Amino acid sequence: MVKNGIKFVIITGLSGAGKTQAMRCFEDMGYFCVDNLPPALIPKFAELCSQASGPIDKVALVIDIRGGGFFDALFESLKLLSEKGFSYEILFLDASNDVLIKRFKESRRNHPLAPAGRVIEGILEERKKLNDLKSKADHIIDTTNLTPGRLKEELKNRFILGKYREKIMITILSFGFKYGIPLDADLVFDVRFLPNPYYIDSLKDISGNDQKVMDFVLNTSAARVFLDKLQDLLEFLIPYYIEEGKPHLVIGIGCTGGRHRSVAISRALMDRLKQDHSVLVEHRDIYKENRGDDL
Hints:
Elements lengths: L6 E7 L5 H10 L3 E4 L6 H10 L6 E5 L11 H10 L3 E8 L2 H11 L11 H17 L3 E4 L5 H14 L7 E8 L10 E4 L20 H8 L2 H23 L4 E8 L5 H13 L4 E6 L12
Parallel strand pairs: 1-3, 1-4, 2-3, 4-5, 6-8, 6-9, 7-8
Keywords: ATP-binding, GTP-binding, Nucleotide-binding
Protein name: Nucleotide-binding protein YvcJ
GO molecular function: ATP binding; GTP binding
């Protein structure tokens, strides 16, 4: 039972991954937000919210390793929160090491776990400390390639639009393996076995959003069989994800550069699923400057 209808979102993740930006997004979405609350105070804070005279039904708390030793009390506090009848979700923000280092250098900030050392040392130590928490997260968002606007859109899709849907929210994400596998992908499929438009002069410089590339990729028996089998697999899995209470499913479709094959297959898969499911499609690497899809 959810006490007084109050819903808590615990915002956590790597330092520099966008927790402050996420908190601003939640504020814009009408959440009551608190930054860096000591975890031991979460149950008491929840009680105060339930006793407030004004309507507080959505609360976002930023909890991270800035709390030092207090951070270790987080799991026990979340257990108490559930025992008191409050519902919560954990949002974990992540990003690649290279991007985190770049963000720290641009902001001229020291990493909280390496105030006098190298940033990478702090990042690696923080990943170890947060590994268990990440495994328990309800939502994992990789902000490596997200602008603040894209992050806000993603949070809105998950926490506002998805709130009123009984069905799971599905994001089909095309990407290039040369730029790394998306950290927030729940399922990843490799379509590099399909014929590559990169080697066709008339198709090399256009993307999978162009009908010519779509036709080239999809008009093969391998592509059609792959889509049939992938659709069957997803239709089998999706009800189980819904039964487990998973609100959002990220399906990664990867080719080498993320410009041709993965884009075309992602669009085709969306067309197959959108009749029965809430589906978004995103193309992470389609506009990368170093596009070479020739491996």
